[in-house]
């Protein structure tokens, strides 16, 4: 049952380094219709459905913590569009007072079927992941076919007046280099922003190595060789992880250099996994069990207190480059990227 939170404004979620948290990533499922090697194992065992938060539970959680200053929500997974009736959740979350930004990250495979319902339900922004425009490379990465469906999904979304549609590509050495220019041309022709995300140590198979990270700097060089000098966009929101550049042709490319230039000092994000575990970082090795509270009649105040504990325990940074770095036990699909 939903409890309408009429809680008065509660103290903001500020961690030990003064970072005020206003952004929540909600994983709605650990399931997916493809198997990207940088995220999932080939043979994956998903969580039983009864362990996954219901829409009622997700809405209750959001209503409880929004008064503490959460304004931005992003739905992710796994693949969020494999969760049945996702537009119903979007509609419920878009009606929460205080939520000013509602976004979704998707692999695009099912997007053509759902874009209109999501837009009508109040979704504002979309990130669509696309690492290659060649079916062969797409299959090598995802262990499945479906590039044509992703492109159909992008086309369907572009026909709707979303506030923003962005393309996300993972930057991996020996895979991404030949994709950089074709992806940029594809994005520029459609006046869409493209973002390259450095490959992070969150693959399920544990094959990540520093040498496999294609840095944002290297990717930018490839782009500059083709499109001329790139100009950094000034006035970037410091809480945004991307560093954006524009080219003389008007194209815009962003870089999320999580490995080579971590943006931890301005991180304002929290996450909740599909089975209701709050994490204060992608690389967190601890979790706070909100599902247990939600399923045991806890009050909104108790929920916020648990989130506050998680925020207070947030480390200064992920420390991927330090000797003491410890990989989280979960892979990306189990966290929600
Ligand atoms: N299934 C959706 C998708 O792929 O867009 C949403 C979930 S996915 C985990 C969210 C984002 O994380 C995607 O853009 C994906 O490319 C990215 N991602 C997955 N594994 C990653 C890794 N090891 N390093 C960097 N980004 C990763
Ligand atoms: Fe699925 Fe997204 Fe992970 Fe690829 S990155 S396996 S699409 S959850």
Task: Provide keyphrases for this structure.
disordered N terminus, 337 residues, 16% strand, binds iron/sulfur cluster, globular, 10 helices, TIM Barrel, 12 strands, 28% helix, single chain, binds S-adenosylmethionine, alpha/beta, twelve-stranded mixed beta sheet
**Number of strand segments:** 12
Bound molecules: S-adenosylmethionine, iron/sulfur cluster
CATH architectural category: Alpha-Beta Barrel
Quickly count the domains: 1
Helical proportion? 25-40%
- CATH H-level name... which superfamily? Aldolase class I
Largest sheet: 12 strands, mixed
Overall 3D shape? globular
What is the CA-CA span between the terminal residues?
Answer: 28 Å
Structural class: alpha/beta
Residue share in β-strands: 15-25%
Task: Please give the radius of gyration in angstroms.
Answer: 19 Å
Low-confidence sequence ranges: 1-7
What is the CATH class name? Alpha Beta
Please name the CATH topology: TIM Barrel
The ordered H/E elements are: EHEHEHEHHEHEHEEEEEEHHH
Q: Report the total helices.
A: 10
């Amino acid at each position: 049952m939903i409890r309408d939170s009429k809680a008065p404004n509660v103290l903001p979620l500020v961690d030990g380094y003064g970072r005020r948290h206003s952004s929540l990533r909600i994983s709605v499922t650990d399931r997916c219709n493809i198997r990207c090697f940088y995220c999932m194992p080939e043979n994956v065992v998903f969580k039983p459905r009864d362990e996954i938060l219901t829409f009622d539970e997700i809405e209750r959680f959001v209503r409880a913590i929004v008064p503490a200053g959460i304004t931005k929500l992003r739905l992710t997974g796994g693949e969020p569009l494999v969760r049945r009736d996702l537009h119903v959740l979007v509609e419920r979350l878009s009606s929460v007072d205080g939520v000013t930004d509602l976004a979704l990250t998707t692999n695009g495979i099912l997007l053509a079927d759902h874009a209109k319902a999501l837009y009508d339900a109040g979704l504002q922004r979309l990130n669509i992941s696309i690492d290659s425009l060649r079916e062969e490379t797409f299959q090598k990465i995802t262990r499945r076919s479906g590039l044509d469906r992703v492109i159909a999904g992008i086309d369907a979304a572009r026909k709707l007046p979303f506030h923003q549609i962005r393309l996300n590509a993972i930057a991996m050495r020996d895979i991404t280099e030949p994709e950089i220019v074709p992806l940029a041309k594809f994005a520029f022709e459609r006046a869409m922003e493209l973002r390259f995300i450095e490959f992070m140590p969150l693959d399920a198979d544990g094959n990540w190595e520093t040498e496999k990270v294609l840095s944002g700097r290297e990717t930018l060089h490839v782009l500059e060789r083709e499109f001329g000098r790139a100009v950094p966009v000034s006035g970037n929101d410091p809480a945004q992880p991307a560093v954006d550049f524009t080219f003389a042709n008007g194209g815009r490319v962003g870089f999320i250099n999580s490995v080579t230039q971590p943006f931890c000092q301005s991180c304002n994000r929290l996450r909740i996994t599909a089975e209701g575990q709050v994490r204060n970082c992608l690389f967190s090795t601890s979790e706070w069990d909100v599902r247990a509270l939600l399923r045991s009649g806890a009050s909104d105040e108790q929920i916020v207190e648990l989130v506050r504990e998680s925020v207070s325990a947030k480390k200064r940074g992920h420390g991927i480059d330090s000797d003491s770095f410890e990989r989280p036990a979960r892979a990306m699909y189990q966290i929600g990227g």
